[in-house]
Predict the structure of T-cell surface glycoprotein CD4-like.
Amino acid sequence: MKALPWFWFVVSAVSAAGKGVITKPGERVTLGCGSRRSFKSLAWYHGSDLILSVNGKSGTNRKGTAKIQPRSKVKQGSDLEISGVKKEDAGNFICTLDGDSHTITLLVVSVSTSPPDELQLGREGTLQCEVAGLPPDSIVQWTRPDGRSDSGTVHFNPLTLADKGQWVCGFSYDGDTYNEIFDIKIKASEPLTSSPTQSSKVDHKTSCINCFCSPPGCTDQPSGTGLAGWWLWVAIGVGSFFVVLLMVCIIVLCRRNRRRKRKFQRMMNERQSERPRKYCQCNCPTAAAKPQQGRHKGKPSALPLKPLLMQ
């Protein structure tokens, strides 16, 4: 019996009109739930599926079973943040905050072209504006650059220069009008290259006699020229091989001579170390004493004494 009143409350909340929030696929959007930051209980619903609930007293969170739950989280008190928005996320979101309920309608606008790249001049193409989350009787239409109106899906057959410029996708919800601007850039179409006919292929083959053909195509060269070029490459390859072989032989011989010289030098050193050492002995006469240079002044000798004559 307790489930019936709660089910009636959810259904009535869904049926109530709420303000619209516009976003695009792949973007991140935040849905507000009042201005209070402190509360006793908070719950977010996507339609009738519970996304999550928060107990303000204990601070515990309880995850719901809604498909959007893994990409949703509570931010800044009671706001709900959704990342990686998808088309199926569009619809009514219900927030219950301490018994007060708020309904927010998420509108997902997607604009696409076919082909997805730039539209080419003179080619066929499609421009589509789709708004997920609108009531079934809502009208989505395009406004051309020249001011004319068109449906939500425009077929170009073919695309002209008059279609270039800003297109406005407009729709209304709950008395408010929303616009999404899309700029069409036209790319010059590439000329179609016609494949050569069978007759032209035959003429090309018969126009040159004794031609040398190599993939991917044939060149009007005599077959002799091709053979000469082939022999030239063979001669270059053989000559390069012999040059490399000669360099290798020279390097090997140089290293071999170096090893022989080192071995011979080592043997000579060993032989010299085994011989006994002999010392020279000189039997030369000693040198004469060096004469003294200069003259030494001595005392003069005394004169002989003469006898005194007796008178």
About this structure: The two ends are 202 Å apart (CA to CA). Helices lie at 3-15, 198-207, 223-274. Residues 12-107 form a domain with the Immunoglobulin-like fold (CATH 2.60.40.10). Residues 223-274 form the longest helix (52 residues).
